[in-house]
Design goal:
Order of helices and strands: EHEHEHEHEHEHEHEEEHHHEEEHHHHH
Oligomer: single chain
Strand order of the largest sheet: 4-3-2-1-5-6-7
Largest sheet: 7 strands, parallel
Distance between the termini: 65 Å
Helix content: 40-55%
Length: 401
């Protein structure tokens, strides 16, 4: 009998974490949950601990950790060790009995624990695109130098991974006849909205994605198509291709998750219902497959499949992401940092929806050229770009007027 694989889930209370637990629950004979982590949602993590009995539970917020520890006493999960603080994230991904790490912490906060998992030689199931956007070369070097495995969880990158050529049992990335990658995106809720009205978009409208159930930040990124821009940068690092060989295709139905075009005229596509449990299950079982709980695609129910070129006037964030990758790593860090600050400000009704790309472009103008070679330089640039963007908002250079 094959031994169970130990898994740590970073961001267990988010949508990816919840979907991962759903898949794992279907295969109790194959996996052992070593650790579950959350930022401050102690109520949700408490429920998960009672149900899944992990060895460790981590709350990044110390107060939330103390609260969770107290609540788990005298329950069936009382033997779960509760840790607090961001450093504990790196500890629970590096444990000897951890084989797989689901890296599902949203934003720059997921960089350090994801990198720690790579350095510990784990199979990293990467749902945090910002890790590669911020530290592409450093992250990929850590994967290779420590014999770690990197499998993408984003539905688009997972689809590309499935369509890439295989040589000697491994995906051979951007080689072996690959001409270019077709990265699909739904276009979000404002694909057809009058451009003149975009400045009046509310947070409630922006988070109402037509196809996917995602967190608020990712939903706003989908509405601006910044998520697709970040995915372009991520794909460059994952599949070793330049940005001019990645074409974003607006595909409203979200049925084709991405495609790979070959030099013989073939185009391979991965199709499926829009449910993150499919790429999660694929990455957990790779190179095999296992059930995910997702229904098979019913081709007789498909009314149509539409494809459009992205409009950079409607989606300036996508244009800025291409520009940032061409500029170098410092610009990519600035792009991500400014976007995170701007999205949070929008969700808190401090700026307009259309101010998000303006703030990102301002940050890019102040980013140094080149690419950082050490982790500290990445963190310094991230902090600097955040402070710069926050200052602009605070000084009312961007306002709701």
């Amino acid at each position: 009998m094959t031994a169970k694989k130990g898994i740590t889930i970073l961001g267990a209370t988010g949508s990816i974490g919840v979907s991962t637990l759903d898949v794992l629950e279907r295969h109790p004979e194959s996996f052992h949950i070593v650790a579950l982590t959350a930022n401050n949602n102690s109520e949700k993590l408490y429920e998960q601990c009672l149900k899944f009995r992990p060895d460790y539970a981590v709350m990044v917020m110390a107060d939330a950790a103390e609260q969770l520890q107290s609540r788990l006493a005298n329950t069936p999960a009382e033997h779960t060790t509760v840790l607090g603080g961001a450093d504990a994230l790196q500890y629970v991904v590096s444990l000897e009995n951890v084989d797989y790490v689901m890296a599902a912490i949203v934003g720059a906060a997921g960089l350090l624990p994801s990198l720690a998992a790579a350095e510990a030689g784990k199979r990293v199931l990467l749902a945090n695109k910002e890790a590669l956007v911020m530290s592409g070369k450093i992250f990929m070097d850590a994967i290779h130098e420590n014999n770690a495995e990197l499998l993408p969880i984003d539905s688009e990158h997972n689809a590309i991974f499935q369509c890439m050529p295989v040589a000697n049992g491994a995906v051979s990335k951007g080689k072996n006849g690959v001409e270019y990658i077709l990265l699909t995106g739904s276009g979000g809720p404002f694909r057809d909205r009058d451009l003149k009205t975009l400045k009046h978009v509310t947070p409630e409208e922006a988070v109402a994605h037509p196809n996917w159930d995602m967190g608020r930040k990712i939903s706003v990124d989908s509405a601006t198509m910044m998520n697709k821009g970040l995915e372009v940068i991520e794909a460059c690092w994952l599949f070793d291709v330049p940005e001019d060989r990645i074409q974003v295709v607006v595909h409203p139905q979200s049925t084709i998750h991405s495609m790979v075009s070959y030099n013989d005229g073939s185009v391979l596509a991965q199709l499926g219902n829009p449910d993150m449990r499919t790429p999660i299950a694929y990455s957990l079982a790779w190179p095999d497959r296992m059930t995910s709980g997702v229904a098979a695609l019913d081709f007789f129910e498909l009314a149509r499949l539409d494809f459009e070129k992205p409009d950079f006037q409607r989606f300036p964030c996508l244009r800025l992401a291409y520009e940032a990758h061409r500029m170098g790593g410092y610009a990519s860090i600035a792009l991500n940092a400014a976007n995170e600050v701007a999205v949070e400000a929008f969700l808190n009704r401090k700026i307009r929806f259309t101010d998000i790309p303006l703030l990102v472009e301002e940050a890019l103008e102040h980013a140094p050229s080149g690419t950082p070679s050490i982790l500290n330089d990445i963190l310094v640039q991230d902090s600097s770009s955040r402070e710069h963007t926050e200052s602009w908002i605070k000084n009312n250079k961007i306002s709701l007027s």
